[in-house]
Amino acid sequence: MKKQLIECVPNFSEGRDLTIIKQITDVIEAVPGVKLLDVDPGKATNRTVVTFVGEPLPVIEAAFLAIKKAAELIDMRKHKGEHPRMGATDVCPLVPISNITMEETARFAHQLAERVGRELAIPIYCYESAATSPDRRNLASVRSGEYEGLPDKLSRPEWKPDYGPAQFNAKAGATAIGARDFLVAYNINLNTTSERRANSIAFDVREKGRVKRAGDPINGEIVLDENGEPVREPGALKAVKAIGWYIEEYGIAQISMNLTNISVTPLHLAFEACCQSAKTRGLRVTGSELVGLVPLKVLLDAGKYFLQKQRRSLGVSEEEVIKIAVRTLGLDELAPFDPKKKVIEYLLEDPAHSRLIQMDLRSFANETASESVAPGGGSISAYVGALGVSLAAMVANLSSHKRQWDERWEEFSNWAEKAQQIKDELLRLVDEDTRAFNGIIEAFRLPKATDEEKAIRREAIQQATKYAIEVPFRVMRLSLDSFEVIQPMVENGNPNSITDAGVGALCARAAVHGAFMNVKINLKGLKDAAFAEKTLAQANEMVARADELEQRIRQYIHQEIEK
Prior knowledge:
This protein is α+β, with helices and mostly antiparallel strands. It folds into three domains: 5-179, Formiminotransferase-cyclodeaminase, Chain B, domain 1 (2-Layer Sandwich), CATH 3.30.990; 184-212 and 231-320 and 328-348, 2-Layer Sandwich (Alpha-Beta Plaits), CATH 3.30.70; 356-561, Four Helix Bundle (Hemerythrin (Met), subunit A) (Up-down Bundle). It is 51% helix and 14% strand. It has 18 helices and 13 strands. It has helices spanning 18-29, 56-73, 102-120, 139-142, 150-155, 195-205, 267-280, 296-309, 318-329, 339-342, 344-348, 361-369, 377-400, 409-444, 451-481, 483-492, 498-523, 529-561, and strands at residues 5-8, 11-12, 34-42, 47-54, 89-98, 124-128, 175-179, 184-190, 210-211, 232-233, 240-247, 252-259, 285-291. The longest helix has 36 residues, at 409-444. It is globular and about 80 Å long. The model has no long low-confidence stretch (mean pLDDT 94).
């Protein structure tokens, strides 16, 4: 069964005393099975956003210990900051990451809330998908009145806490614990110090919009509906909450946004909407700031959006796409921006899983030439295949920028994107092939003293052998797929680069043949005859097809050269 993973993003009401923050994060890191991903303190807001991930039970244990430690160290009677808050641990959302539903995540939120309320005597309100009633779903409603309004709030029956006592905890305040979709906290920087003007832009873009006024939009009388409630003019963006504020630390005003559903309103569209609104008000967006972490998709979508606006090929490396996003959004205006420290997937990467492809060319060649049996032919086949399809991507990108071919940029961009996808997967398999080989070695080292141990060892060897077949088989399939890009680049790409694409075809054929050798030699040790027969038949077909395509491409190139 696949691991269930959830993310926890508690916000603590301390952003200036780093010793307090460190004590809180220490108790999180002490829980086995939990990985601390990010700690983001803010001086002006006097607030720290912490992000950690793991399986549900370790995560809620770490969350409980962090809330407990925050209650010991933070005194809300002394707290001042720009951000709305009501407790030492202000909010503590759980976010489903993989193999877990929102409903399951909400149940874990309630489990955490009940324990905090019972053991720490902190009033707890459950919000978003863990809310116990519709009027508690919205965090802004739950936090209305903030810390200073808690004594009155707790005395009202409609605001009885979901867990914990309905009594004012002067030191710790109250905490909102919830389950929600991934939320991106995002600030837009303006070339003004005016909080009022920043708020005007926030009202333009946020879903809630602004109160409608008769006549003068600023000083006019508020328009009421038939129930006497203010009529609102909705903003431009769905699933966006926003306010304007002045940040003394930076000496600028910002639009502070929460993007509550990035599938509805992605980061780059929020940025564009703010740019447009600012321009109409005589202002300019100078950059932006990500608070906490984001999924890789957020930056890739942004980078590709801006590349498309420039009519540039989207089929460039992942690193280049992110670079375009960071530069265009101005994410490095206020502080250096390191994607390796801000993207969840990068932080979860195990360095051992990409040891080979992180080497420079000389180190990789030296490692291959050493007395170690790995990396061997399988890893080299995957790397040769990656080089072959990289040449196809190069020709596609050169073609998309060729003079007088401007109208074809999107055609070649699509080819380059496909090539990049194949390249990235083949690069992953460079290390994966070595791990598959090591898996066989480890299986042979298992104990074999008893009949039970022998049976376990035999099964482990068979499973490891099957995986050591599946990896090079995947290399064969991907390398063969790369001909789908190589051939069009030979026949229809930039004619000045026809031989580059031809070398790509030679690499792809070599990768198919090289990986096939690994498939065949490992099939000899497999007891599953049906699997072996099917795999060998498919592999032979791929070899024959690769030979046919490479020969056709080579003949075509020589004919073109000799014209």
